[in-house]
């Protein structure tokens, strides 16, 4: 990864010592720095900033960068109107937030609007079993009302979005249309009038359209127009005019909004939910370098099943009940499996899942006749909030344990873009590429070889990922097809892993350093991984050669890397006062390769356990700085042989996630002394979900 530079509930569920913020509503399990609302892709990423706690109706939702994405909501109860979502200037009575709860896929608020409680559920599906569903960048908003005073009440709900969802510059002109009736839907579509494919501005894409849709059932009305007019219409009348504003203009010019109202009728016990779909779609989605001809234009995979966006949205909305059931199942599965590690870990896993998936997009190419080649599946990942590059190898590596857990086939789709590109021979270096392009969504490669060099890091990562995929699935296709490439990287490690030259590791912001012990660990495990790969292809000579190098290096490494007093591994050879988190040992566990003896794990466990540190948020990454990265705390926790040390590392990260200081989507880079966060936010890698891997049996 590259960088330029009631509370009662909450406290009961948090680990000991966690300082939680004290909003006036109950939280379960806690108030994170920002609450995921619609988080499904690099460009559908809406959050409610928290810090000390914002109610759903005291702040605007924001894109992960902090730019507002307008999303407002009112509820009318017997003609009295309450605001429940956003901070619109057309005021109504403020609904009172009663509770907030999150699971892996859902954020749920209960907003009391006088005699009615409105349940506001934001569901961002995670669909590892289904490429069509996973690749459809839409979220659900569902609203249901229930009387809280025993009487029946007339209830109408309202929600709108602004055009801020389609650009990083609100001075640009948008245009829009509303279609009513097709597919039994009412759909607002909005986009920039000037489209710029593959171009980001302030990390928002300047291409494609936002869609906001609901079923065209009785009692649904719509309207587009200036924010204050459309909102005032509902506040005054609890119904919209089914009218369209056709004066296309800049996003911030008399702020056009795209609204729905829905009449829930007379509500006593909980009403049937009214469901909205909100998404952002562009086509083509990705540019990808292939060995011949121009850049390949790739589409989101769901297009293999639908010929119009209306059909796709109709399928998505029609599937809501099943989608909710699948979401509840995955929520329960993550929670149950992660609780087997610890409760703290389960809370972090639940907070991380949506953003781990929303960094990536599953794509497909077209045949020469224009039809889709559904067998050509590639998944690309954006390095959100640092370099913004495409499919950074060490970023995919950090998410990797999650793929092994949910569906290793997704891991294959994440690796293929790098493997195909490098097998084509266009990348000139002897080591693995760092990423596939400096700016998402342009996977244009680095044929000049001038990408950020992390030679030992990325060679080790690729070998470790390819082997673990093969181990999990029994599918030998990667190791057979790309054997020569893997062999080249392994050879590079033979030459470079024991004494890594002055170079970057994944923790690039810490700078270059020679003889990094943690890099040597990764390189040696990578060599050993190649031995396993050779074995699996029936190449006994190759397997034995690599195994013997790995064994010899592991033994030499222990002498080089252990401090003179024998109490810990150093950060770099020979520097006795240095140390760091040896998180790369985790790969040895994940692969079951046992390159390093138990004594190394025990030595480090005891050192971490005794570390003299005033840090309250886990341990520093290494002695160069007081900062750390949340995912490496978790990976390190997965390597220790003592549950107290493990829980203390995990607890530090939970404290960071729940301490109320930040209002940015959960990032990974932070100060272990005071829990302040660095520039990274909404990172797909945020928690590095190692602990789940061991919970799933090998297939
Ligand atoms: C994993 O994903 C592949 C590709 O979409 C799919 O065929 C398979 O059924 C999935 N497996 C599981 C266990 O979800
Ligand atoms: C935003 O768009 C306006 C209007 O086209 C333009 O003047 C301005 O330079 C743009 N700002 C950025 C940061 O692109
Ligand atoms: C809006 O702009 C897009 C992109 O330029 C264009 O294709 C589309 O026809 C326009 N739509 C309307 C309703 O003007
Ligand atoms: C819980 O995790 C342990 C390993 O830490 C494993 O042996 C056990 O089978 C797991 N239990 C369940 C119910 O998954
Ligand atoms: C479709 O994609 C697969 C996988 O990349 C490839 O092997 C196959 O040749 C492609 N089919 C066509 C018709 O190009
Ligand atoms: C790396 O460590 C080896 C062995 O301790 C030493 O000989 C070499 O000089 C070190 N390299 C650098 C660049 O410090
Ligand atoms: C692969 O490893 C297994 C287990 O060590 C061994 O029995 C087998 O002979 C090896 N196969 C080859 C081709 O090296
Ligand atoms: C066996 O593995 C070694 C090392 O990877 C390689 O050089 C050799 O070409 C392989 N042999 C075969 C028959 O693939
Ligand atoms: C040893 O490591 C410490 C902490 O990382 C660093 O401040 C110091 O400069 C290093 N010493 C040498 C000789 O590299
Ligand atoms: C860590 O923070 C303490 C307290 O601010 C400071 O004295 C120390 O120099 C810092 N350590 C490093 C390695 O930056
Ligand atoms: C971890 O290893 C150390 C050293 O061998 C041993 O004393 C300790 O009992 C182990 N802890 C656990 C929980 O196994």
UniProtKB/TrEMBL annotation:
<dbReference type="InterPro" id="IPR032514">
    <property type="entry name" value="GtaA_central"/>
</dbReference>
<protein>
    <recommendedName>
        <fullName>DUF1793-domain-containing protein</fullName>
    </recommendedName>
</protein>
<dbReference type="InterPro" id="IPR052743">
    <property type="entry name" value="Glutaminase_GtaA"/>
</dbReference>
<feature type="domain" description="Glutaminase A N-terminal">
    <location>
        <begin position="105"/>
        <end position="337"/>
    </location>
</feature>
<dbReference type="InterPro" id="IPR033433">
    <property type="entry name" value="GtaA_N"/>
</dbReference>
<dbReference type="GO" id="GO:0005975">
    <property type="term" value="P:carbohydrate metabolic process"/>
</dbReference>
<keyword id="KW-0732">Signal</keyword>
<feature type="signal peptide">
    <location>
        <begin position="1"/>
        <end position="21"/>
    </location>
</feature>
<dbReference type="InterPro" id="IPR008928">
    <property type="entry name" value="6-hairpin_glycosidase_sf"/>
</dbReference>
<dbReference type="Pfam" id="PF16335">
    <property type="entry name" value="GtaA_6_Hairpin"/>
</dbReference>
<feature type="domain" description="Glutaminase A central">
    <location>
        <begin position="344"/>
        <end position="688"/>
    </location>
</feature>
<dbReference type="Pfam" id="PF17168">
    <property type="entry name" value="DUF5127"/>
</dbReference>
